[in-house]
Amino acid sequence: MKEVQQDSLIYLCAENIEAPHCFTTRYGGVSRDNLASLNIGTRREDKLENVLKNYEILGNAIGFDPEKLVLTKQTHTDAVRLVTGKDWGTGLTKPDFAPCDGLVTNTPGTALVVFTADCTPILLWDSVTGAVGAVHAGWRGTATQIGAKAVEKMTENFGCDPQNICAAIGPNIAQCCFQTDADVPKAMVETFGEEAQRHIRRAGEKYYVNLKALNALSLERAGVTQIEISEECTMCNPQKYWSARVHGDSRGAQGAIIVCQEAGK
Fold first, then answer.
1. Its pTM surpasses 0.90
2. What is the CATH number of domain 2-259?
């Protein structure tokens, strides 16, 4: 996955997604103190003017209109919402949706946003229809296969063929740091069967789980064959990314953004 720097702004882009998109880092915004500097979350006790300015900076760099943003209200569900132009501004300048952790659209100009701070961000782009999706997958979302459900939503509503969908899995808490109790691996085995064991490492009474690999497995089972995965770990890089395990509640939010364009552009 390619790192892009423009002045102080730093973000990641997937090589296999041609629609405007990014996985944000902490760098390049105007937020201050523990939220410094590119906080894109509206629930982190930041000034709204700072958040809006941060989206303006990203919009100029990536190529989207901040007035056409649509944000999630994430509660670790497996809900994926269909978005149109009527939803522009939701979660930013208009009231939130009911809780959802995934968004899909085929409305050109719409910019979808999901937030992370250790959880797994997933972006989807259909090279034929131009439809896009953005997903926040915590371990619960991974276990309920929210990424695959977003693919199914795109297939059902936009006529997408999963083989034409390119997926990118962004920075999250990687297996090196994601230490859990038995409940997490148990949920993964219940969902994915014994194949999940390849992505779980036991260490005494604890376990280390590879959420990136499990989300990729879910996407593969949904028919997606073009999957790009970031190697970066948010917990290993707390200066570059916010990490819930490192920073606790005293943190901003990074995330992932993707913009729908007309098919063929």
1. yes
2. 3.60.140.10
